[in-house]
Amino acid sequence: MLERALQRRLTARREQSRYRQRRVLESAQDSRIEIDGKNMLQFCSNDYLGLANHPKLIDAMTIAAKNFGVGSGASHLVSGHSVLHHRLEERLAEITGRDRALLFSTGYMANLGAVAALIGRGDHVIEDRLNHASLLDAGLLSGARFQRFQHNDLDDLQRRLRKLPEEGNRLIVVDSVFSMDGDAAPLVELAAIAQQHNAWLMADDAHGFGVLGEHGGGSAEHFGLDQQQLPVLMGTLGKAIGSYGAFIAGSETLIESLIQFARPYIYTTAIPPAIAAATLASLEVVQEESWRRSHLQGLIQRFRTGAAELGLPLMTSPTAIQPLLVGDDAQAMAISRALEAQGILISAIRPPTVPDGTARLRITLSAAHSDANVDQLLSTLAAVWPGELSR
Ligand SMILES: *Cc1c(COP(=O)(O)O)cnc(C)c1O
Question: Relative to the CA of 237, which ligand 1 atom is closest?
């Protein structure tokens, strides 16, 4: 019975061109990877600064593993909170300009933990409709009244805030850089609106931390928002930082509250201390090798200029996430396959990850890419893109 019910759902998925399949990676993350037995130039990792395979991170992790072993052995509140985790939290607080930071095992858990710890039944949570799945799940899990506003539409947000009853706390939650679109949330305006409507603001900086801001401090640094204006700041460590894990940064009171009430923090094993050591090393590289951010900016400009000349369907993203909008699921898959045949790996992102009718190729650029890599991408896109291009 279970088998038959599941088979029906799988068949429906396949017929919709929405079936998801994994590929097997046989090398480190880099611009070129060995995957499913083929050597490919990839434009789909979130390793925006090319740090996932950096020798300084590898050395730090190796040394820490020799001293601290592999497993952390317990949760942070039992006996798993090592000096390396502690130092990393202090460093993250410094970089983000917050009182404190708290490490979580993943970004997904940080979002579930923070949202559900801050609000509950009788409260209100309002999210951008293009927020990451983990934030949407967090809103639902919290038990608060849950609403979504139109993407980056401040008028829609304010209309909804004005209609809320007096009772209950209010939390506004956004991605600071939207993961499938690459555009940014208007955080300065959102902070003002939150203050005006007596709401708390939370931003998920998974795609900003390490990349945005003069020192890589992320969206808070880029927009100059302190912890009064943006009280709940979430960042991840598995993307631009090139390691693993996530954090929430904010006031002393916020962090103490999360330690008491965030269940995905309390009831899980701490990440391996060697990962924390690698992350600390990465944060140093992020500061020291600022050329990685400027090189990435150069690649983004190069790609956008070239794609615009070709008449490719660019979106309005200023970041390393440069999606090309296709629309139809099957067509997005066909383009992805045609690129693959030419040795370029870019995944087709389809619903339910993105809204119906907005399937796209999610191209991500990295400081690990060269100008020549971007030129090869552009000429291959020109060769395989269906229909009329301007050239
Ligand atoms: C990747 C991502 C997460 C989840 O972070 P993990 O550490 O991979 O669990 C959360 N929010 C956004 C916007 C993301 O892109």
Answer: 7
